[in-house]
Every structure is written in structure tokens, then in C-alpha cells.
Amino acid sequence: MLKVTSQRCYLPASKTPFVIRSYCSDTIEVNELIDIMATGRTTLSKTDIEAVMRLLFEEVQDLICKGYYVKTPIGNLYLNTSGSLVTEDEPFCPNDMNNNHEIKLHYRNNPELEELCVKNAKYERIEKLTLNSPKISLVECIGNKDLSKLKAGDAIIIKGKRLNFKKDEEFNGVLLKNETDSYLLPEYSLIKPSMIIAQLPKDIKTGNYEISVCSTRLTKEVKENTYSEMITII
């Protein structure tokens, strides 16, 4: 759902002290889009859709490079040139770092798509959007294990936004906690803004745990986000 919020405007010419801003609720990667399409209103398999999308990418890219204006269901793509010339017959050299000649890919949205998206947009007004805190959207276990059947030493995948942290800083990392115990995970094979891969401690006690990401990457104080579901170590 689109998040709509307000932001103070400091432009002297502005007639109002605040302006409207919006933020996407999440990012859908290509592989996630393919999964959604494969489980939707179609008899095509995931492999079929992957092949069609790859073919579309290759053919559109080839036609654009040949100078065609290519129309697709979601919009039109074409190449455009820019720059300045000292003389009328000066060569166009976009790969020469000594001039300002450029070739850029341009996109024009499909008016029908725009009309449908605007008409059917789902949005919510929020008080304030915090852009300096981690946001967990999904926790998975490598091997597709149920989160209620994890074991010590298992590797988990955490997906979301602004998840990266300062590994060597105090209180930074993936935190597991319950009423009696807490563990700041020490081992990570991947730390990125959209994904963390971490290993559960081999000495972790059995029980139910909240899982959180703690970070001071963007602020001096620790920002923490806790996943909506608990995990269970058996």
C-alpha cells in the first residue's frame, strides 16, 4: 500500500508550510514478480514466464539499439541523444570523455496503465515515515524449514529494507530474545540493505524467540525493528 505523509517545505516561494510525499511500501524483485504471475490467473509455469520475460528483455533491447521506438504493454522505450557541437559537421562521439555527447534510454508510460493505476491506487495516510530504522518484511530458513522447527546452527534469511548495520559496533546485528534469554547473532554470510543471512548460535537454548534487527547505521541511537512472527528453536 502506498504510504502518504507530509513533509515541511522550506522554499520561500511556497504558499503552504507542508507538502505531500509518498513512499512505496516495499520492493518486488523480478523473481518475486515471476512467482506472483505463476500463481495467478494463468496456466503458464514459472519456467515459461521466465523464458518469455528473458526473450522480451533481449528482443526489446536489440530493437532499441537498432534505433526503433519500441512499444510494450507497460510503456514505450527509445534512445535519445544530447550534447553540443563546436561546428555543424562535428562528429557525434558519445564515448569520448572530452565532450558532453550522450545517448540515454527514455521511457514513456502507457496512458492506459497510468489511468488504471491512479484509479485503483491503494494508499494510507500515515503520521510520520521513519526512514532511518530497519524494516523486516520476511524471515525464512535456508532449506525451507518451518520457523517453528528451527535448530541451533541453522542459517536464516531476513528480508526487508535498511537492514544493513555496523557489524563491529556495539548493539548492532540480529537479536533473538525472549523473557529469559537474548542472543546477538555473531556470524553473518551476507549483510545488505535488503537482505541478511545469519547463522543461529550453536549454543542457543530451545524456546520461542522474537527476532529483531538493531542498527546505528543512520543514527547515533539504536534503531530496532521486530518481526511480526516469533521463531521456535527445538
Describe this structure in words.
The protein has 234 residues and is α+β, with helices and mostly antiparallel strands. It folds into 2 domains: 118 residues, IHF-like DNA-binding proteins (HU Protein, Chain A, Irregular); 99 residues, Coagulation Factor XIII, Chain A, domain 1. It has 3 helices and 15 strands. The strands form 4 sheets. Strands 9, 10, 13, 14 and 15 form a 5-stranded antiparallel beta sheet that branches. Strand 11 and strand 12 form a beta hairpin. It is extended and about 75 Å long. The model has no long low-confidence stretch (mean pLDDT 90).
Brief summary:
The chain has helices spanning 30-38, 46-65, 111-119, and strands at residues 2-8, 18-23, 70-72, 75-82, 102-109, 123-125, 135-141, 155-161, 173-177, 182-184, 187-191, 195-199, 207-215, 223-226, 231-233. The chain is α+β, with helices and mostly antiparallel strands.
**Nearest-integer average pLDDT:** 90
Structural class: alpha+beta
CATH fold-level topology of the largest domain: HU Protein, Chain A
Radius of gyration: 24 Å
List low-confidence stretches: none
The major beta sheet can be summarized as: 5 strands, antiparallel
**Percent of residues in beta strands:** 35-45%
- Work out the helix count: 3
Structural domain tally: 2
